[in-house]
Each structure stands twice: as structure tokens, then as C-alpha cells.
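Q: Here's a chain of 228 amino acids. Please give me its 3D structure as C-alpha cells.
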Amino acid sequence: MCHVIVTCRSMLWTLLSIVVAFAELIAFMSADWLIGKAKPSSSEDVDNRTGGSQEPYHPTLGIYGRCTRISHMQFSRRDTLCGPYAENFNEIASGFWQATAIFLAVGIMILCAVAFVSVFTMCVQSIMKKSIFNVCGLLQGIAGLFLILGLILYPAGWGCQKAISYCGPYASPYKLGDCSLGWAFYTAIGGTILTFVCAVFSAQAEIATSSDKVQEEIEEGKNLICLL
């Protein structure tokens, strides 16, 4: 018989696991890893209301994508175009970024799988006599290691030609040149830290769902058990 067990700690772990997976996925897909040096507006890019030149803009560069501004001379307007600069894996600008993409992708896939499984932990707490919380916590720890490897290798690719075109000639491995780090990089770091928090907190979720109080309510014949 399926006993639905909901505790404060298990629900918090489930929600945090889902948030971490989505945060890492969004960061990976974003082009806002590097914010390039300011590009001056062209002479045609004039504000029709003031007659002055528009503010310079900052193109952004991701692991496999980028955002830049294109001008429409005939319409006197400009659009920001975002999309992948690499049509396939081999066209990613740096070998280090290719490795980063692999490590992050593996880590994110593990996190997404754990997030999916975590939804069902309210009804299923063990698999083959193994606590599902402990198994998921172990997987989250492994995913965190993959994410760390990816984030360590990413700055090594700042010396590639693509990064230099955005960050200037002084860009080199682990040196940003004229660029700055975007929100996606910080989100990936924050998600990695929270991944290890989830891995540790999974043990608390397991303790909460196997406590004496839960066992007492199961023995009383309750199928829905909610505890703080």
C-alpha cells in the first residue's frame, strides 16, 4: 500500500532540487556568461526624439550562444539578435568550452532526473530497500562535481579567438580583458553550491520521512501523513 508522507524537510528538499535543476538549465542555455566591451553606436543609430546618438551597447557571449545588436538602416531601428553561434558541437569556440558544455550537460541531466524523481518521494521512499533520498543525495553530489569541473574549465577558454573578439586583445585564459561576467555564470555558481546543499539536506529528508512519528501513523492505518 502506498503511504503518502509529506514533511517540511522532504518538501523543502524536493522544491530546492527542482529550483536547482531549472537554474542550472537556464544558465547553461543563456548567452549572458560574458558581457563584452561596449560597442559604440554607429552614426546611423540616432535617437529620433533627441537627435543624439544612442548609448553604447554590450554584446554578450555564452558557451555556445551570443547576443548582438543589428541595425535596420531603412527603418532607423535596431534589434538585439540572440542565438547559437555554433551550428554543431565542433564549432564551439574553445576546446575548454566544449569540455565545459559536456560536464555541465551531464550534471544538469542528473539534476533534472533527480528533480523528476523527487516529486514521487511523497509516495515512494525506497527502491530495492535503498532509501530514495540517500540515492538522490548521492547523485546530486556527483552532479555537483561535474558542475565544478565545468566551471573550472570555462575560464580557461577566455583566450580563444571568439572571446578575444568580444573582450579585446588582453583577454586570455582566466583573464577577462575588457569583459565582465554575466548573470548566467553567477547563477551556475549559485546552483552548484545549492546542489551540494541539496545533497546534504537529502539525509534530513530521509530522517524526517522515517521518523518514529511517521511509523506510528502508518501503524494507525493512515495513508496520508503530514508532519512539520
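Q: Can you summarize the key feature?
A: The longest strand covers residues 65-72.
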